[in-house]
Specification:
The chain is mainly α. It contains 24 helices and 2 strands.
């Protein structure tokens, strides 16, 4: 993937959109325009200066000025190319200047995109103490995805505790510790992540992020700010869920149950985690409580949610109560609803090769832009991952690219004496770099959607197979009841349902077929176990 990024950079460098540049200026002109708030003019002057020099050091410093000027002009997607080119030239003075923007680009372009460039072209002492956390987080993420869990823990521990990136490092560190079986350490880091998640929105008073927040009003800026806040809430909910998972895996079901209850129902995470919460009740053999939680997915307010495992656990719960006819109805309904979806997902992946990520990104965008409670089954399937902060940020980045193209045209037209039009000079080069940026967004987003589709398709196929096994099991039980009723009753005599215990801080609603938003997730069924009761013919 990194090779494609570099090939894209090379295509821009050799694109031929470098003609008609102005006479070389000195940095005093750049700084004068920058200090006067004429950021686009400063970027244009620095760009032209870069193309008039053969000195790598001067070119690199000019690119650094272009980068910072474009960021201050609100053109961060355009600035990204010059940020990377500055690092590639490997002039340390210019790199140090531009790396002050590393945390901003980590936020705007994502860790997955930025980490390769930061790891390949920089080292820790290139950064100021404020910006260094971006480097350590990039290293930690790279080690985690590469399976070096000890290295990931070590690098994540170097992220400054006052940095807005610190909560992310805690989540990453806890995940790496969990992979190593260090459950106690993981639990502590997930707890800290929960407490510090809001720090994702913190901005140092003099930082570039704080300046941009004041200088760049507008609809897209507001959307980005809203996404940042949503991402912080999402992170907090996920860190709570991770604590619950650790507690569940270590057999602390009561503590896991309490922790799951702490996830806000308004959180998108809760719709996915409710299923895991139901497993906690199942592990305690409280099948009526399990069914009560799972029936919440039938609520109109949760119809947008897609999770095939919900139906599997619901069928298993009915089976545990020996209510085979109820389990059979769930299985038949499941096969009817999801069999065709599995075929549609498989067909889409087969028709669209992995070498072209664009159809996958476009499909994800359509699902994201569709209404939440969509009638399109494929979009409901995609809802589970395209509404994550990661994909939403990629989608918003593409919107920002399109907005920047319009802004560049407007900024170029302000000064007739330097105007070149959108296909030549500095504006032409910016448009070429933005085309490259769109390709990188579509590549990252498309790969994410494709991999997620394949992963969730495999889960769906596995669930279809589980349902078939349960169907066979039901038929086996029914046959045994007819052939050997006493033996069947004896084999099931030890099965049943424990009566759910209500905690002092807990309300349990008996499900009566109606859904109320303040009750979903807290219902408890009142079904009596049929296990060990023998066949209906015994009393005749």
């Amino acid at each position: 993937m990194i090779l494609k990024f570099f090939l894209g950079l090379a295509l821009i460098q050799g694109s031929g959109i470098l003609f008609g540049v102005e006479a070389r200026a000195n940095y005093a002109d750049v700084k004068r325009a920058f200090d006067g708030g004429q950021y686009f003019t400063a970027a244009r002057i620095a760009f032209n200066d870069a193309n008039r020099t053969s000195s790598p050091a001067e070119k690199s410093m000019a690119y650094a000025w272009v980068t910072e000027s474009l960021v201050r002009a609100g053109l961060d997607q355009s600035a990204l190319y010059f940020f990377i080119r500055t690092l590639q030239i490997q002039d340390r003075a210019a790199s140090k200047k531009v790396l002050e923007l590393a945390p901003l680009f980590m936020d705007r372009a994502g860790t997955d995109f930025m980490k390769k460039f930061l790891i390949r072209f920089t080292r820790a002492d290139d950064y100021s103490p404020r910006a260094r956390s971006a480097f350590h987080l990039a290293i930690a993420k790279d080690k985690l995805t590469g399976g070096d869990y000890a290295g990931a823990v070590q690098s994540a521990a170097l992220v400054d505790s006052q940095s807005p990136l610190y909560p992310l490092s805690l989540q990453l560190k806890g995940t790496a510790e969990l992979m190593q079986g260090q459950t106690r350490e993981a639990l502590l880091d997930f707890e800290s992540c929960e407490e510090r998640a809001d720090q994702r929105n913190d901005m140092e008073p003099g930082s570039i992020e704080a300046k941009l927040k004041k200088e760049q009003p507008g609809a897209l800026a507001e959307k980005w700010e809203a996404l940042r806040k949503d991402a912080a809430r999402d992170l907090k909910a996920r860190c709570i869920a991770n604590q619950a998972r650790v507690l569940y895996e270590t057999g602390q079901f009561e503590d896991a149950d309490r922790k799951y209850d702490m996830i806000p129902k308004a959180s998108f995470v809760w719709t996915d985690i409710l299923f895991e919460h139901a497993w906690t009740a199942y592990a305690k053999e409280e099948y009526n409580r399990t069914l009560g939680k799972l029936v919440s997915y039938k609520s109109p307010s949760l119809q947008f949610s897609f999770n095939s495992e919900v139906d599997v656990l619901m069928a298993q719960s009915y089976m545990a109560l020996c209510l085979y006819s109820d389990a059979g109805r769930i299985i038949e309904d499941f096969n009817r609803r999801f069999g065709s979806l599995a075929r549609d997902v498989k067909k889409f992946v087969e028709v669209n090769p992995a070498s072209d990520a664009r159809p996958y990104f476009a499909l994800g965008r359509r699902a994201l832009q569709d209404k939440l409670h969509t009638e399109i089954v494929m979009h409901r399937f995609l809802n589970r991952f395209v509404r994550s902060p990661y994909f939403q940020s990629l989608s918003l980045s593409q919107d920002r690219v399109l907005a920047e193209k319009i802004a560049i045209q407007r900024l170029d037209a302000i000064r007739p004496e330097t105007r070149t039009g959108s296909s030549a000079g500095f504006p032409g080069f910016l448009n070429a770099s933005l085309d490259w940026r769109v390709r990188t967004i579509q590549l990252l987003g498309g790969v994410f959607v494709r991999n997620s589709m394949i992963d969730h398709h495999q889960i769906l196929i596995s669930d279809l197979e589980k349902m078939q096994f349960m169907k066979i099991d039901i038929l086996s039980h029914e046959k045994e009841k007819l052939m050997q009723p006493e033996a069947a009753a004896s084999s099931e005599r030890n099965r049943g349902n424990r009566i759910p215990v209500r905690r002092d801080d807990q309300l349990l609603w008996s499900f009566n077929g109606e859904f109320w938003n303040d009750e979903i997730g807290d219902y408890v069924f009142a079904l009596e176990s049929e296990c060990g009761k023998g066949s209906a013919s015994e009393g005749l």
